[in-house]
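ARCHIVE CARD
CATEGORY: sequence design from structure
SOURCE FIELD: tokenized fold
FIELD CONTENT:
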């Protein structure tokens, strides 16, 4: 499993952004117990935006664990969301935690699971980082820094804005 994790880390690091900021970081960016956290990122928000999304890769080196909470001073609260597409319609639902099975890797990425920053207190500015604390079910927590990429950054062509959250039922404070 560690070979797979290393290969994944190498692939993730083979981007201009990662190379520029961490030319020799072949290992995980962060660690909390059995879980490696690699390449966290978010994207800049447009003026007036109230939400943002954070992505990263979570890898279990040994036993399973669950990401059960996250918080950051830049947002009122952080929710876990899962984006899916059903019949061509993007849907979003809240989940209670992000489970990482033993030896498994879970990619939080545009179009899938992500951390949703709710009630942003200020715009997310490209080139800066935001602090984020991740807490896992087995009791470990870790403080990470999340780089802010460009407004249009995303692995999916339609992921440049959080517009798909507008159709999410029961979301307070959405504009
Ligand atoms: Cu979301």
């Amino acid at each position: 499993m560690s070979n797979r994790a290393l290969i994944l880390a190498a692939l993730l690091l083979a981007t201009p952004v990662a190379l520029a900021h961490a030319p020799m970081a072949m290992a995980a960016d962060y660690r909390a117990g059995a879980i490696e956290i690699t390449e966290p990122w978010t994207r800049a928000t447009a003026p007036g935006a109230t939400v943002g999304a954070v992505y990263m890769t979570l890898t279990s080196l040994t036993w399973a664990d669950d990401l059960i909470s996250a918080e950051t001073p830049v947002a009122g609260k952080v929710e876990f969301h899962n984006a899916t597409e059903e019949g061509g319609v993007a849907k979003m639902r809240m989940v209670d935690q992000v489970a990482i099975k033993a030896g498994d890797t879970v990619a939080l990425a545009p179009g899938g699971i992500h951390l949703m920053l709710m009630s942003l207190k200020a715009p997310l500015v490209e080139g800066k980082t935001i602090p984020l604390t991740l807490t896992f079910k087995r009791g470990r927590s870790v403080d990470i820094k999340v780089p802010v990429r460009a407004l249009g950054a995303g692995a999916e062509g339609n992921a440049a804005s959080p517009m798909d959250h507008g159709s999410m039922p029961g979301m307070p404070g959405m504009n």
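CARD ANNOTATION: Residues 2-146 form a domain with the Immunoglobulin-like fold (CATH 2.60.40.1890). DSSP finds two helices and eleven strands in the chain.
SHELF: design records, drawer C
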